[in-house]
Amino acid sequence: MRIAKIEGAFGVLACVDLPAEAGGALHRLPITHRILLENLLRQGGEAARAGRADLLAWLERGRSEAAITFSPSRILMHDTTCGPALVDIATMRDVLAAAGGDPTRLNPDRPVATSTDHSLAVDFAGVGDAAARNMARELERNGERYRFMKWASGAVDGFRVFPPGSGIMHTINMERLATVVARETRDDVPWAVPDTLVGTDSHTPMINALGVLGWGVGGLEAEGAMFRVPVSLRIPEVVGVRLTGALGPGATATDLALVVTERLRKLGVAGEFVEFFGPGVGSLSVGQRSVAANMAPEYGASTGFFPIDARTLDYLRITGRDAPQIELVEAYARRLGLWRTPELEPRYTETIEIDLSVLTPSVAGPRRPQDRLELAAVPAALAPALAGVAPAGPGGPPADAVAIAAIASCTNTTDLGLLVAAGLVARKARTLGLAPPAWVRASLTPGSPATRRRLERVGLLEDLEALGFSIAGYGCATCIGNSGPLPAVIEQAMAKRGLKPIAVLSGNRNFPGRVHAQVDNALLASPALVVAYALAGRAALDIASDPIGHGPGGEVVRLADLWPAADEVEAFVRLAADPGDVAEAYDAAEASPAWAALSAPEAARFPWDPSSTYLRPPPFVRQESGVIAPGSMRARILLALGDDVTTDHISPAGAIPAASEAGRWLVAHGADPADLNVYASRRGNWEVMVRGLFTNRTLKNLLGEGLAPGWTFDPDGQPAPAWTAAQRYGALGAPLVIVAGERYGTGSSRDWAAKGVQLLGVRAVLARSFERIHRSNLVGMGVAPLRMPEGWRPETLGLTATDHIEIDWDLDALAPRASIAIRILRADGTVLEGQATALVETQAEIALLRAGGMIPSILRRALDRL
């Protein structure tokens, strides 16, 4: 590895001489691959030499079957993914101690930062003290979990917790954590290296907006990375998105993100890296870039990367980074060839072009984020949801009533310009005497506590509050399904008239039941459009041209009367932002008196409470039953499912119904049936999580007609909850498989969607296609992801509970993407044969399948060091 030096106010730092290592090929490599190359070279050894050759050879075709390793600088988590990981670590410490080892030696080898953002619920909205009241409920509900996290922050080295109220993890990462260029010491020499990470949330790529390479992984892969198990990946294909022009009047960063999502899903992106380039990139602020980068999982990508340039430096200044660090970022990026120039045109696998100047306001929905709609097309898209709804009485909510209007999520609240635009729409509406109807539940849950300071500085928070958009807290809230109760008038209309409520939110996902368990239709929109739809109180209108409301004198008000000009937004953004906001707001949040007062154990090993309904050591840390048996496998089918089964379908995050299997277990163990909290808060309790699997009310098990969600057939052919049936199959020693359609596991990077199926006794999932992170999570739990033979579809196979699936595999001889013979054995003696594909990408993944998953591998390494 050749070494260079850079020098400035930041000192003298060594760095990889990337131009010397890559030679003339450097300018042809995508920026993301340049960062991967630098990372490989620092790892050293034969793997680095081979990886360098493979990365440079990638240029020939823009594709490669070769695998490389990636060693991130740090790990990012949130409370509902760090919780299960900490439960695993605490249990591994117990196992280590039982074997005679020192439990304090089991610590992450890389720094881990975790936010406390995913369980915040909008119990109170539309009132000035909503944030304080929701925070009180948050600590009341989740105090046990938070004490556990606080224990970890003291007992586990390198583990940092951002307490409740600190904001959403991706915004914290952008504003507080990211350095863009990091420092490390190697052999007592100070080095400059790219700031890189993996995060246990699918929207981790938002940090790509800063030129920081990071992507979402499952909790299991993150646990491995914590303990210096390198992330193994096939050299990614890279889709280049060439941007030209600049956003025109009325268009926002949200519109760009929705167009990118639409275009790349149509292209069939599934796990590739996406890199933005072209002259139009320079017209976008980092805040605007963050919206497009954030939605990488929605367009099927691992990343949505924007290289470092002058806009990056502007963002670092406005968020209070110090001058020497900003100087280092520029010097390093220029020296290593990581700096974006307008003429930059690397080699990409595929390229698409988007002209920013032709984009117009749009929304996506009503059930998938890739289904972009021109505003005039919204009524037709919502028409099926309105069929059969009885007419409203005087003053009642119409058939297309907007029940939830939420300015929410890191996706669209990290860009200050989008919030300012929403505030200006609210100001103009307020001036004209408009307000949302009573059936609209409005809320504002931004990603950063600095937001309040910025909006208050220019008086826009008052205008938003006047329309019901009071800050209800700093967390994921509505975007993750913690939207609180529907208005009573809406619930009455649902019961009496068959109303199907509609949500409009500035989030990233709108799968049925995602935003609220009773909401199947939701529109994704910019914050300014969320305000406009709230004012209209209706969704099935052309909001660009139809009347939104009427002034006190009866005058018609349309969107054009409310929409701010681009220069007006820019002027308010300049007035609203102050570089001191970030440090002051986060310092105040991290000094939370409520967090400081929270008691936590101080022992090296966590003292489990046998009566706890939140924290229980999981059996998969201690057992070997998850290891796939050698030789061919004859399995029973637990579930047969269709297309677009999301991780929300597999492992829910929302409220736990008292009448559910999980709810009954909780009530039987002393929980209050009136307040069982949400599944996301119970992820430290495997008993609850495994009973909640596949219970989404829209999910259909194709093994039989009339099966309730979450139910299947037991070995006697009787209907039973999946968990109950799985226990009986397990007692018989029968391995299980799940059969599914296209895009299995899309959505959140929810490791319980894999942990749960492993606990059910599932050894393989046979699907038409898999979403990237969930595929990795399955491998991390020792569950084999298999692509179904060509021409097979779960809807047409006519599968029954009496069928068996026989899989011919030899894990000792398995190769990445190997063909595997598979047979369906019918009860009538007929056999259907085909060739499935093992969707394992590297030898490292095959080793995980052999070992039974990531956790047994980590534990064995720790035990070997005794």
Give the arrangement of secondary structure elements.
Elements: E1 3-8, E2 11-16, H1 18-22, H2 31-43, H3 45-57, E3 67-70, E4 74-78, H4 79-98, E5 112-115, H5 130-155, E6 159-161, H6 169-177, E7 181-186, E8 189-194, E9 196-199, E10 213-216, H7 219-226, E11 231-234, E12 238-244, H8 253-267, E13 273-277, H9 286-294, E14 303-305, H10 310-318, H11 323-336, E15 350-355, E16 362-364, E17 372-374, H12 378-386, E18 402-408, H13 410-413, H14 416-431, E19 441-445, H15 450-457, H16 460-466, H17 488-497, E20 502-505, E21 521-524, H18 527-536, E22 549-550, E23 556-557, H19 559-562, H20 566-576, H21 580-590, H22 593-597, E24 633-640, H23 647-650, H24 661-668, H25 686-692, E25 711-713, E26 719-721, H26 722-731, E27 736-740, H27 752-759, E28 762-767, H28 772-780, E29 784-787, E30 804-808, E31 819-825, E32 831-838, H29 843-851, H30 854-864
Parallel strand pairs: 4-5, 4-9, 5-6, 9-10, 12-13, 12-15, 13-14, 18-19, 18-20, 20-21, 24-27, 27-28, 28-29
Antiparallel strand pairs: 1-2, 3-11, 7-8, 16-17, 22-23, 24-30, 25-26, 29-32, 30-31, 31-32
Helix pairs in contact: 2-3, 4-5, 4-30, 8-9, 10-11, 14-16, 14-18, 14-20, 24-25, 27-28
